[in-house]
Design a protein that fits this description.
Oligomer: single chain
Radius of gyration: 18 Å
Number of domains: 1
Number of strands: 0
Structural class: mainly alpha
Length: about 250
């Protein structure tokens, strides 16, 4: 059944977030901060590992040894400018506030802020990683849901930890996952057979850099506008195809 992987992923996030909210009140503030910091560090590690796709053989064979980093840089710059003009980050935050108003009519300003923060940050964490793209591609191509099953496990534990600190906004991120992975799955069923290894590597490497930005956000080091950079995931494969045609 195509789409089953995303359904499992959404369920895992909802279960993990629910447990996190229930357990969060019983955890001291220092413990919750420590857990969130640990997730931020792991996000940085995952991002760094994904950047290794810059050395992927298919990628370098298609565009040359020096081009992959320039392609990722170009994708992030072009995508970032486009995303800023489209105000994607602002729209994500507005979406979080709309969902908060819909499901939580009451609450203090601080709790509402935590809801939006939880929704935006975890939406980025759950949707940007290569497993979200590659797993949805595999699902859409009918090649199995193993990658999304792994992602579901990771997201379940991550949502538990995030929700213990950030509350129900983490559960709302399941909506983002359903939309993003659902669309990728449908697109994969249509165009997936035409994607090369180089194109997939460019998406993975670009997503890795963006995950570093998410990690910095989670650690409260810098609020990198990763949402505005989301178009880079579309620009990267386009640049790869353009460079490969001249290589």
């Amino acid at each position: 059944m195509i789409g089953l992987g995303t359904i499992i992923n959404v369920a895992a996030i909802l279960v993990g977030a629910s447990l996190g909210v229930l357990l969060g009140h019983r955890m001291p503030e220092r413990a919750r901060v420590t857990v969130t910091d640990a997730l931020g560090l792991v996000t940085l590690v995952i991002g760094a590992l994904n950047i290794m796709a810059l050395t992927d053989g298919d990628f370098t064979d298609a565009v040359g040894e020096a081009a992959p980093l320039l392609i990722v840089l170009g994708a992030l710059v072009i995508g970032g400018v486009a995303g800023s003009l489209l105000r994607i980050e602002e729209r994500l935050e507005s979406g979080g506030r709309f969902i908060q108003r819909t499901f939580a009519r009451s609450g203090t300003g601080e709790s509402k802020s935590r809801f939006v923060e939880g929704f935006v940050d975890t939406s980025l964490v759950f949707c940007i990683g290569p497993l979200a793209v590659l797993g949805a591609l595999s699902d859409g191509l009918g090649q199995g849901i193993e990658q999304l099953a792994l992602k579901s496990t990771l997201d379940g534990f991550a949502s538990l930890a995030f929700a213990a600190s950030l509350g129900w906004g983490v559960a709302a991120a399941a909506i983002s996952v359903a939309i993003v992975q659902g669309l990728v799955t449908v697109l994969a069923a249509l165009v997936g057979p035409f994607l090369s290894g180089a194109v997939i590597a460019s998406i993975t490497a670009t997503g890795g850099v963006m995950l570093l930005g998410v990690g910095l956000r989670v650690l409260n080091i810098r609020q990198v506008p990763v949402g505005d950079m989301l178009p880079a995931l579309i620009v990267a494969p386009l640049l790869t195809l353009a460079v490969a045609s001249f290589a």
